[in-house]
Amino acid sequence: MYIYHTSIKLHDTDAAGLLFFANQFKLAHDAYETFFNALGFNLGKMIQSGTFVLPIVHADADFTAPLFVGDRVGIRIHLGKVGRSSFTLLYDILRETGETVGRVKTVHVAIDKQTREKIELPERLKMALMTGGESLPE
Amino acid sequence: MYIYHTSIKLHDTDAAGLLFFANQFKLAHDAYETFFNALGFNLGKMIQSGTFVLPIVHADADFTAPLFVGDRVGIRIHLGKVGRSSFTLLYDILRETGETVGRVKTVHVAIDKQTREKIELPERLKMALMTGGESLPE
Amino acid sequence: MYIYHTSIKLHDTDAAGLLFFANQFKLAHDAYETFFNALGFNLGKMIQSGTFVLPIVHADADFTAPLFVGDRVGIRIHLGKVGRSSFTLLYDILRETGETVGRVKTVHVAIDKQTREKIELPERLKMALMTGGESLPE
Amino acid sequence: MYIYHTSIKLHDTDAAGLLFFANQFKLAHDAYETFFNALGFNLGKMIQSGTFVLPIVHADADFTAPLFVGDRVGIRIHLGKVGRSSFTLLYDILRETGETVGRVKTVHVAIDKQTREKIELPERLKMALMTGGESLPE
Fold first, then answer.
1. D26 close contact with A: CB closer than 8 A
2. What is the structure's pLDDT at D132?
3. Between chains, do D71 and A47 touch, taking CB under 8 Å as contact?
4. Is A56 within 8 Å of B25 when comparing Cβ atoms?
5. Quick one: pLDDT at residue D87?
6. Measured between CA atoms, how close is C132 to chain D, in angstroms?
7. Is D70 on the interface with A (CB under 8 A)?
8. In the prediction, which pLDDT does C131 show?
9. Which domain holds residue C8?
10. Chain A CB contacts of B63 below 8 Å
11. Who's near D91: CB < 8 A, 6+ residues apart?
12. Fewer CB within 10 Å: C terminus or N terminus of chain A?
């Protein structure tokens, strides 16, 4: 489990006055990048010099309470199902009061950067996902 | 059925070289706005002077093929399930060749703008959704 | 001169109800991509297989009238100063009535994709910029 | 002077591999929101229940060095010119090494929320801008 803290910025909202729905996915991805960085996987380095990438093949979200400019949120990440070449991340969007305001899921597949073919999840990544997350400070 | 035509812009992509996943939801919403405008429901006017709004309470997407800067796509909208206060829209993201590269679903709930309570789908909207979409030019 | 037509989408606006200022730069860039495509320079192809790129080293904008969700705008591009390795593009943001609602300027420098050093503006690009724009249909 | 710390996220970049230019303006605005919050002016509350707003009427930026996914930056805000109804903010984008990688300027005008007419800068805001910034912790 890992928690990423952030706040809703003006550009995250739209003229209806609240968080624009697609930006909840964007915020979950910010949490994922920070989480992976803490696990020792810097997305920037992976893109520049890594041998594999982890594109998202499925995403879904529920929106249960409105979020407004300046609202502080924590995004709590859990590891979901881990497959041969894929893994699922689950994100709870929480107010500081602990109230859940939304939920996101992303399914990632490991592919070889050159061939663009599916590969087995690299062992080092699998280990980091399955054990590392436990010992991370929030 | 309605088709919205657009192309992938540089800012829709990220350093991994392809469409950033959350922007597929954004593009689907662009299609929804254009579709609703064609049905006689201008989102801008609804926000400024309407009595109800249609927030998204659930969204999901599959990403089946990569999209790059300059790629032209059509977003084909179908009406899904229509409930008492909600409706579902289904979007197929297609290349000009007809190849499906992604899919999006959004579930909308009608709420009163003042009370923020669920309301029955306004009859005029329901009619437009159920019949209007049929007769629209692509 | 070239005109790009678009409309303000919900995600272009923010909770203050109007176009978020940074998105005026984004819309100008959309116009630039479409303009360059019309000149025979596809940004996607340039990034994937070209020998040079044209990063922006300076940008400025004025915001003279508010834009709301659904507003239709034309973005008129003019060529500004052309230097040894740089060129300037000027964008007028116009309502359908012809009213100017904003202005953007971007300064681009040609750099070699490998060395990241400034290069002389490729002749083919210079020609396209200086003559091609004239003969393009709006 | 106030410094806002953040890092470049994947969605801030584009397929050319670096920060998309318009997103430097977005990051500067994030810094502005955080700065104003520290001064006691919460943008969300101002939009919801304030009597005035502070739209940007001019913005410009220089881009002097590339920023990549995961790069950590500090955005240092200085107060520029203060006029009767307007004020200017200057932002330096710095790497952790202190290297300046970009610069942004935004000019804000105080307008009455109802009439949309220019008003004199509210005294409380002027005081906060001119003195408060000095004593804020970085």
1. yes
2. 64
3. no
4. no
5. 98
6. 25
7. yes
8. 83
9. 2-135
10. 55-59
11. D28, D31, D32, D75, D76, D77, D78, D103, D104, D105, D106
12. C
- Do C13 and A15 lie within an 8 Å CB cutoff? yes
Task: Give me the helices (H) in A15-136, please.
Answer: 21-38, 43-49, 123-127, 133-135
CB C70 within 8 A of CB C8: yes
Element (H, E) at A91: strand A86-95
Q: Which of B7, B10, B24 to mutate against chain D (most D CBs within 10 Å)? A: B10
Task: Give the CA angle between residues C120, C126, C132 to the nearest 5°.
Answer: 170
Q: Does residue C60 belong to the interface with chain D, where contact is any CB pair within 8 Å? A: yes
- Whether the CB of D66 is below 8 Å from some CB of chain A: the reply is no
Q: How large is the ipTM?
A: 0.95
Q: In angstroms, rounded to a whole number, what is the distance separating the alpha carbons of residues D113 and C112? A: 49
Using CA atoms of C32, C36, C37, C42 in order, give the dihedral in degrees to the nearest 10: -100
Confidence category of residue C1, pLDDT binned at 50, 70, 90? confident
Tell me if residue A92 is catalytic.
Answer: no
- What average pLDDT does the segment A54-66 reach? 97
Question: How close, in Å, is residue C111 to chain D by CA atoms?
Answer: 13
| B69 in D contact zone (CB under 8 Å) | yes
Q: Does C18 touch chain D (CB under 8 A)?
A: yes
Q: Does A59 touch chain B (CB under 8 A)?
A: yes
Report the number of distinct structural domains present in chain D.
1
Write down the pLDDT at residue D1. 79
Shortest CA gap D46–chain A (Å): 10
pLDDT (tens digit per residue) in C66-109: 999 999 999 999 999 999 999 999 999 999 999 999 999 999 99
Average pLDDT over residues B2-9: 97
Instruction: In whole angstroms, give the CA distance from residue B43 to residue B50.
Output: 9
pLDDT in tens, D64-119: 999 999 999 999 999 999 999 999 999 999 999 999 999 999 999 999 999 999 99
D119 neighbors D110 (Cβ within 8 angstroms): yes
- Chain B residues touching residue A15 (CB < 8 angstroms): 44, 47
Given a cut of 80, whether residue D137 has pLDDT beyond it is no
Which H or E run includes D112? strand D111-112
A-chain CB neighbours of D44 within 8 Å are 8, 68-71
Distance, CA of A124 to CA of B21 (rounded, Å): 25
The DSSP bridge partners found for residue B106 are B59, B89
Which residues of chain B neighbour D14 with C-beta distances below 8 Å?
10-11, 13-15, 69
Amino acid at C80: G
